[in-house]
């Protein structure tokens, strides 16, 4: 399948500073791809080069197989939504949405039909005559989305569009963006540093770190099978156990990791690399509490935090390391209790440097 959007060897340098190392990335038609990473990871730089706001130092960008590396932004057939909304304060909602269409010299009837359709799509028809100052943050963001959607671009770029909203409104707008993506069938490239937002919205996530791509995959891939220690630590809550391989095998022939003061069986399929030390990822929801000395590792409950749907326990392990476990509210763990932990080895991941 040919890609809708493709970045081929693009890089960006500002003097001696590297904003993005040479990078390849392909986005399929209709896909929702999120560029995720901490500040300074290169995600916004990549989005700006795709949009045409910044020229790459090397490499090229193709849309539908056409080289658009040096095509000006307005002629790339893309739409862009900013975090700041960028609405014109002196224009009504209707005129804000119509602005891009008028700049493209659409007829009056085409503008009217497209604006009305876009406002209906974001459920803001009744606000058409209001001005931006009369709208809430969430409503202004809807108008920014409508303005982008009005001329039906096939590629839509969104640069942290929900960053200025509070948690409840942000979650609501995430649902709206998912709905709009399905309705439009357009290709979305979305920038965020919020891992929960990326997991919620994306078909695939491009995780970035230190001006390069760390891993690309589905949300399940990055959560269950992170390729690196950085990916394991950035996506979701993580327990990273350091240890060494035992010279002997378990009862079923499985490899054993000596870590957290215990003997931890690894998946039979775990790719064992020659190294003195290994890192095992155990997500907090994987372990269950058992009696001391009857699990893989033992520890002492150091803290108990109520989270509504579940309880999170902080454990001090026998070797002094710390481990977090999520458990059901029906359990009543107490600080100071000694417990054992057991889990399905196939719910763990052996990481490599």
Walk me through what this model shows.
This protein is α+β, with helices and mostly antiparallel strands and 353 residues long. Helices cover 24% and strands 35% of the residues. It folds into two domains: 5-233, P-loop containing nucleotide triphosphate hydrolases (Rossmann fold, 3-Layer(aba) Sandwich); 237-351, OB fold (Dihydrolipoamide Acetyltransferase, E2P) (Beta Barrel), CATH 2.40.50.140. The chain has helices at residues 43-51, 93-103, 108-121, 137-149, 167-184, 195-201, 219-224, 229-234, and strands at residues 5-14, 17-27, 32-36, 58-63, 66-67, 78-82, 155-159, 187-192, 204-209, 212-217, 239-249, 255-259, 262-265, 278-282, 288-290, 297-306, 311-317, 322-327, 338-342, 348-351. A hairpin with a 2-residue loop joins strand 1 and strand 2 (17-27). Helix 2 packs across helix 3 (108-121). The longest helix has 18 residues, at 167-184. Residues 5-235 form the ABC transporter domain. This is ATP-binding cassette domain-containing protein. One of its GO terms (molecular function) is ATP binding. One of its GO terms (cellular component) is ATP-binding cassette (ABC) transporter complex.
Give me some keywords for this one:
353 residues; Rossmann fold; OB fold (Dihydrolipoamide Acetyltransferase, E2P); 2 domains; five-stranded antiparallel sheet; 8 helices; cell inner membrane
